[in-house]
Amino acid sequence: MTLLETPRLVLREFTAADAEALFELNSDPRVTRYTDIAGQTPELATIRTVDLPGYRAAYALAPGYGVFAALERETQEFIGWFMLRPFRAAPYFDSGYPFPNDIELGYRLKFSAWGRGLASEGVKGLLHYGFETLRAGAVMALVLTENAASVKVLEKNGLTKLAYGNAALHFYRLERV
């Protein structure tokens, strides 16, 4: 199922056929450098038997939310993923976070997709979807301070840094107006 389309992207639900593409994405240390899987070697079997079934189950539990495969619209090439989920559902949920009902936004793109504005375009599309379709009150994102490119993407899309977090990890947030 397609979640949304932007001028250059299609975001759709993951399928079992996406396992190798997701494995390739998660195998690139440039891509995972600022993520929770940095330095880890992914296993294709785990992607097939744990990750993708988990994504599929999440679609059924919370329609409209989840981790969605990102394809270039023109070529249908897999270039990564974008995510919207209740922050409370994150395995790293911080119970001290002052806005526990926020929706978390995230993304991971192949190195070949970097520097082309695709992250900004996908974030913009997800923000619109989150506010207009899901009626989210606010969207938040976590970013390591050293990930300047992602900080730029978030700020370009109107998210502002909260006075919450620590020197290494910053919380960004945008409320629906």
Walk me through what this model shows:
- The protein has 177 residues and is of the alpha+beta class.
- It has one domain: 3-Layer(aba) Sandwich (Aminopeptidase), CATH 3.40.630.30.
- The chain is built from five helices and eight strands.
- An eight-stranded mixed beta sheet has the order 1-2-3-4-5-6-8-7, sandwiched between helices.
- Helix 1 crosses helix 3.
- The longest helix is centred in the N-terminal third of the chain and has 18 residues.
Q: Which structural class fits the helix and strand makeup?
A: alpha+beta
SS field, number of helical segments = 5
Number of strands: 8
Distance between the termini: 29 Å
Concise account of the structure shown:
This protein has 177 residues and is α+β, with helices and mostly antiparallel strands.
Task: Chart the SSEs and their pairings.
Blueprint: E1 2-5, E2 9-13, H1 19-27, H2 29-32, H3 44-61, E3 66-72, E4 78-86, E5 103-109, H4 118-133, E6 138-144, H5 148-156, E7 160-165, E8 169-175
Parallel strand pairs: 5-6
Antiparallel strand pairs: 1-2, 2-3, 3-4, 4-5, 6-8, 7-8
Helix pairs in contact: 1-3
Spell out the key features of this protein:
177 residues; Aminopeptidase; 5 helices; alpha+beta; eight-stranded mixed beta sheet; 32% helix
